[in-house]
Specification:
The chain contains six helices and seven strands; from the N terminus they run αβαβαββαβαβαβ. The chain is α/β, with parallel strands linked by helices. It has one domain (19-121): Oxidized Rhodanese, domain 1, CATH 3.40.250. The chain has a five-stranded parallel β-sheet. It has a two-stranded antiparallel sheet with strand order 3-7.
């Protein structure tokens, strides 16, 4: 997907302010049993199609409104992902502005997760 220049500029500015990690970093953390919130910020229909195993959903369109209900502890470890790592960087930047101090964006998003062959879930969550 070709992204518009204004969007890419916004993402670049956000990326300068947030921490990013690779899909391998996240998989290692999951495999080690590390406790963190794994949050998919894609649209509802994207999440319903498939998602990284164990991820919870809080779409970018509502994350600011609902994050404090889902994750009230501002120091909690949070990993965000989207389709390719752009929207999650924007969401991580926003959460930092809201006072969350341990937020990371997963670079490459679900696309990189799929390409790595990491576990997926599909269909509506239980």
């Amino acid at each position: 997907m070709a992204h518009n220049p204004g969007f890419l500029k916004l993402v670049d500015h956000a990326r300068a302010r947030v921490k990013e990690c690779t899909v391998a970093d996240v998989k290692r953390r999951l495999d080690c049993g590390e406790v963190f919130h794994f949050v998919d910020v894609r649209e509802d229909h994207e999440f319903a199609k498939d998602r990284a195993k164990g991820a919870r959903h809080l779409g970018k369109g509502i994350i600011e409104r609902d994050i404090e209900t889902m994750i009230s502890e501002k120091q909690a470890a949070i990993v965000l992902y989207c389709g390719g790592g752009f929207r999650s960087a924007l969401a991580a930047d926003t959460l930092q502005q809201m006072g969350y101090t341990n937020v990371v964006s997963m670079d490459g998003g679900i696309k990189a997760w799929r390409e790595a062959g990491y576990p997926l879930e599909s269909g509506q969550p239980a």
